[in-house]
Every structure is written in structure tokens, then in C-alpha cells.
Amino acid sequence: MEKTQEHNDREPSESRTTPASPTCASSTSVKCAGSTSFHPPPKQSPWSEISPPPTYRPIRSPAINPPPNTNSQAIILAPVPQSQKVLAISLPHTFQSPSKKIHSPDDIRQFINSDSSKNFLGFIVSLSESTRSHKTSDSFHESTTVKKIVSIIETLIQWTEEIPPAQQSSRYGNISYRTWHNRLVENSESLMLQILPELLKSSMVEIVPYFTDSFGNSSRIDYGTGHETNFSAWLYCLARMGVIEEVDYQALVSRVFVNYIELMRKLQLVYNLEPAGSHGVWGLDDYHFLPYIFGSSQLINHKFMKPKSIHNEDILENFSNEYMYLSCIVFIKKVKKGLFAEHSPLLDDISGVPNWNKVNSGLLKMYRAEVLEKVPIMQHFLFGSLIQWYGFLFLFHD
């Protein structure tokens, strides 16, 4: 009874709307669900294009009949997001404690059309482009700051060894995660001091909240794409302050983000984190989105590996350490049982896309529509001086 009430009381963190497959988003006509074993879902009452009803659906009870995707056509017709240079701040700068601003679809529209949103998404596209056609082990510039960030993540991984899961009757949401997260919060400022120069120490009031929100929610003991977006926002803030530079981008993906995903998988397995507002069987992934964007970029123009290669066990076994996309597929197959087309139909659909370039561009459009434009996710996002909220001033902003 307590578990049911806990689920009902949760704030949803992700949309239940079935996202449009990048297969459909490409200019080449490809059958969208040809390789799955599911029949098209029956017609139901349409949901809002901006945000679905706030009903939590745990991953153990996926929606076998998903709602119609009223946002699919908008995703297909949307332009592919483009890279942008991060807008650097000038010093001295007044930092501020960030706060939540998004509460409604109107707020989402204001944010998504603002310079803040476009520059942040442009940063993610730039990260994707930095790793285009590069294996994870390829050589790249690795600054002292990047090495320190990696060291911080390795410290967080070590904490999982020092804080074992508690013995409890409930299988999901191990309470020891709260101990791990409390240690994160208590040490967050000292961790930030490892990478911040003296002139920017006052920025901790603004960047620490993004950092501590990057690894899941300690109350709900869950994790999702909203937390992953916070980690990217933290990196973006460091870029705005000049702590990391454009020359660091490939290392941010191949070293920092790869280690971040390793940490999150460790937390998911050790403490059984719930998916934050799971899409159920109809989502791209229960927890992540960005490693598919970066991973598909890595595979662009590969001589022999195509999107359909995810079904080749030899390729997965031999190359998953070099390509993030393949690593994601291997992890899914490790934690989910049954036919891949049944537990991951959207990823199965994407494997029918003719090339990785179309996969990458489709995923970028899908990330904007299914993460950055969703109230249940972005209602938790924070705005300060580095990621600004324009409010009603947006109406007069060019």
C-alpha cells in the first residue's frame, strides 16, 4: 500500500508520449515499425502536444497500447538543431542561486525560443560534432580541467564501493542511495573547488545545484533524462565561464561523458534506481538519451558498421567499448530479457535507418521535442545567470 501511494505521489519527470523515431524524421522513406513484432496501437483520446497527463507508470508495467503521438509530424518537419559557439561571460560577473521557472506549456514555448535554449542545445550539438567518426580511444586534447572532472567522477564511482546497498524487502529504490547522495551534497563544494580558479569560486552558488541534480533524485530514488540534462547544463555553465574550452569538447564526450555513463550504470545496478517517469517499453531508453546522440555521431561514415549492426552479437562484443551507441545496446540487453524488438521497439526501428548521419540528425530533433520541450522534465530545470530565464521579456527579445 505504501509503495502504491509513493508512486502516485511522485512528480513525473518524463513524458509518456511516444516519441517519433528518427527513422520517421529522415528524408528517406523507411517503414517506421517494420522490424518490431507489435501491431499499431489503437486510437485513443489525444494528449497535449506539449505535455502528457501527470500519471506515473513504472517500468515493470509498460503501456502495451501507447497513446497516439500527436507530436510526430512536428518532429519530422522541424529543422535539425545546429551547433553554436558557447556565449562566454565577461568578468566580473554576478552569479545567482538558480531556481525553477517552467510550470506550463507557455513557459516551455518561451524557453525553447529563447537564446538560452538555442545556445544550450547548440552546445550539445557541438559536443556531438566533436566526436563525429571518432572512437572513444582515439587521441584528443585532454586538459588539466578535464582530467580533474574525470577524477571527480571516479571518486563518485568509488563511493558506491564504500556504501553497499541495504538489505531490504523492496527490490527497487535501495535506501542506501540516499546515503550516497547525501555524501555527494555534503562534498559538492569541495569537489567544485578542484576545478574552479580563484576568480570563479563565487560561481559555486550557481553551478553546484546543476551538479548535485545530475545523478538522480534522493527522495524518489530515481534517475532519468532530466538529470542527464542537468549534467550537460553543468558542463555548459563551465564552458560559459571559460573553465572548459572548445578544444576540450571531444574529451568531454570520450572521457567525461563516458565516465559519467559508467557511474550512472553503476548507481542503477547497485541501488536499483527507478526510471524517472519511464516511457515503459515505448521509450528510447529507460534512463538515457545523450549517449545515443554522441554514439551515433561516432559511427557516422563507418566503413562496415551500419544501424542494423546492433543486431550482430559479434560486433557488439568487440566494439561496444569503442562506441557509446553500441555500449548502450549491450547494457539494455544485459538488464532486459526477451526479444529486443519487444522490449526496445523504438531502438529496433532506428536500426532500419540507412545510415548513422540520419540517425544522429533524427535523435537531435527528438531530444529537443521529447526532453527540452516537455513540462514534466523541464519543470525541474534551473535558471540563473548562466542559463537565463527571459520570462515575459522574451516577447520583446530579438
Automatic annotation (TrEMBL):
Q: Which reaction does it catalyse?
A: [protein]-peptidylproline (omega=180) = [protein]-peptidylproline (omega=0)
Q: Which Pfam families match?
A: PTPA
Places the protein is found: Cytoplasm
Q: Where is this region: Disordered?
A: 1-73
**Known EC number:** 5.2.1.8
What GO cellular-component annotations does this UniProt entry give? cytoplasm; nucleus; protein phosphatase type 2A complex
One of the GO BP terms on file = mitotic spindle organization
Q: Where is the composition biased (Low complexity)?
A: 17-29
Any one GO MF annotation of this record: protein tyrosine phosphatase activator activity
Biased composition (Basic and acidic residues) is annotated at: 1-14
What SUPFAM superfamilies does its record include?
A: PTPA-like (SSF140984)
Q: Which UniProt keywords apply?
A: Cytoplasm, Isomerase, Rotamase
InterPro entries noted in UniProt:
Phstyr_phstse_ac, PTPA_C_lid, PTPA_sf
According to its UniProt entry, the function of this protein is described as: PPIases accelerate the folding of proteins. It catalyzes the cis-trans isomerization of proline imidic peptide bonds in oligopeptides.
Task: State the similarity comment.
Answer: Belongs to the PTPA-type PPIase family.
What is the recorded name of this protein?
A: Serine/threonine-protein phosphatase 2A activator
**Species, as recorded:** Populus euphratica (Euphrates poplar)
- High-level lineage: Eukaryota, Viridiplantae, Streptophyta, Embryophyta, Tracheophyta
